[in-house]
Amino acid sequence: MAVGELVRQYRKAAGLSQQDLADLADLSQARVSLIETGRVAIRLDEVVSIAAALDVSSSMFMLSDLVDNFTEDECLLVWQYRQLPDDFRRSASLLMQGLLGVSRAGGT
């Protein structure tokens, strides 16, 4: 997935308009649109500011090939997970492991 597409998915998952994201990341709405549509290459400083605005790790964008198959729902789940306090994140991870029947080490 292209970085711009991933930015768009995370922005939508956060319930933000392009203008909202632009304001939070100190960019213009036009620049956000160009990034999302892939008409310009995203600069490193923009990756950092957009990631901070969306409260995700900048590595999510820099390693976008690793999340190539994320659906919008999966992006939303990641975003929601990142909004949880640490103790809730641990509980959510344990719940997911229980639902999948796996341990932390990946065994059954």
Biggest sheet record: none
SSE sequence, one letter per element = HHHHHHH
Low-pLDDT stretches are none
Total helical elements = 7
Q: Give the domain tally.
A: 1
The CATH superfamily is lambda repressor-like DNA-binding domains
Oligomer: single chain
Kindly identify the CATH topology: 434 Repressor (Amino-terminal Domain)
SSE class: mainly alpha
Task: Describe the protein in words.
The protein has about 110 residues and is an all-alpha fold. It has a single domain, classed as 434 Repressor (Amino-terminal Domain) (Orthogonal Bundle), CATH 1.10.260.40. The protein is about 65% helix and about 0% strand. It is built from seven helices and no strands. The longest helix has 15 residues, at about 85-100. The protein is elongated. The N and C termini lie far apart (about 30 Å).
What is the secondary structure topology, with strand pairs?
Layout: H1 3-13, H2 18-25, H3 29-36, H4 44-54, H5 59-62, H6 72-83, H7 86-100
Helix pairs in contact: 1-6, 2-3, 2-4
Structural key phrases:
elongated, 108 residues, mainly alpha
What would you say about this model in short?
The chain is an all-alpha fold and 108 residues long.
